[in-house]
Amino acid sequence: MPRNSGRRSNQREVAYAAFDGLNGEHSLRDVVPEDVVDYVVRERKGGVVKFFNFGLAKRMGLIADEHPDKMTKELETKLLSTFSLQIVNEYDLLYNKISRFKLKPGRYMATRYLQLQHNCKKGRTSGDGRSIWNGQVTYRGKTWDVSSCGTGATKLSPAAGNNNKLYETGDPSVSYGCGYSTVSEGYVDALFSEVLEQDQVDSEKILCVIGYAKGYGITVRAGLNLLRPSHFFMHLKQNRRDSLKALVDFYYQRQIKNGVWKNKDKVDKYSFFAKKTVETFAKIAAQFEAKYVFCWLDWDGDNILLDGGIIDFGSVRRFGLCYHDYRFDDDQRWSTNLKEQRIKAEYTARTLLQLIDFVSGNVKPSLDSLRQDRRLKDFWKIYEDELRLTYLQRVGFSHLQSQQLLRFHRRTVNRFLTVIQTVERYWVHSGWHQTPDGKTRLPLVNVWKLFTVDEGVETLEDQELLDILATDTYGVEPILQEQQCIKQVRQLIRIYQKLLESIGQQAGTKAVNQITSRAKHRNMQPVLTGDGICVAVEDILRWGNRLSLEDRYVLIKMIGLHQSFSLKEREQLLKMAKLSKTQQKYFSKLVNLIESYKESL
Description:
This protein is α+β, with helices and mostly antiparallel strands. It contains 21 helices and 15 strands. Strands 3, 6, 7, 8, 9 and 10 form a six-stranded antiparallel beta sheet that branches.
């Protein structure tokens, strides 16, 4: 053995010691033990680390800041020992399979929460159907939750709950209920979270993806708080006030300690909880609508975190155009559409008010009685303002300029929003189209191309305008609303010019030029859509061993940076990146793919 090699190995083991805290222990278990179904686990053999988020691991304190973005043998061994796990579930116990396994110490929790897919609408049978919580880590004053998806079939899956049957992990007769995930799902989640972050949309973060034979995988995810509204609504539906109060107290303290919430005025914590959660759901409803993020947002809060971050990307979409009629087919029901998400968000906010009143007053008001509650009026005011601010920033106005327009020229801003939403919702007359996972109608025009024209757009002929706005995917087909559409477009141009003049009068011509330059860049930048992400992941899988783990990490990070809508930030970050020839080759392929799918679902 080379001199000092044993010492270096020991030093590396110490460097990765932070992972040892992810042993199933979590403070939620002590706060609401009835939320938890505990499982012993065994090491799952045959795992290979397919993706590791070095940057996130450094933010969480799991690896040192100076650690190179390179996988070491010791790090991979630590990742597999920490996360390559499979639960010993009820089926294994029933058929006495436990004696075959070498069990790891500790217990790992699956959590209970409300899910509409279950026959029981009170959360008695539902929750983490194929996930366990690895634990929590605290670093630099912030506590992170860590959970793993694909670790085995729990008794909380829809298949187990609705069929009143225990399933063996990997049972081919069920899909979601089999307890496994796939490597492709992990890559989709990793890519989606990076892309959404650049669009200032919060989501769970992907720390690691482990691959197994037949494409199976485990996805390790992290967040500052992985509790969903549905964790709370379960107790509300079961009228368990003490448990609900304990959970609200726990959540409030975590948000304060993490610095996510700052209660500077020392407002009563329950009033503050109500205020912040109503504000959160109002803002994300507006942002999702304006940014074409389809998240469903049903009232059970199953695929959204209480802090507004997206979790579970299976039914999440990011559209390149306003597919406002798209609906996801969930077997037993159709989802909401893009424009209906605000209604579901309001219902979620109203339910949060109901639970706070229940906790703080010992009486649970009806949801109908809260319709006129002043706190719910705040929801609609915040939603309306956030929607307008998001649209204004998309056409080049800075956040400060957008606020000024909203304050001093609100009537003009309202007209602008009404017209632009009218134009973006025109659809081709051929009706409904089936998609692989649902149905939609196809947008007629891409209204955002209007803001990529340098100048003189108001002088263009009708056909020239239609040619500019034509979608690359569908083109323009004759429709009855063609003249009406052009009329609305011309009105939109006039209103936009009026908004520019309002800023120009205060800040001058230079400011107006900066606005139109930002609008041009923002709307020329191709969007990585849900369809694009799926195809990108298929390509990454197909490229296989031609890409190292480090290559995959760099490519996913670079695609995220490519989606930055800040021209200065994007150019600086891309310039700083030193890509290898292999990385540059495949990055170029992915950029071309983004362009091909930029107007898709």
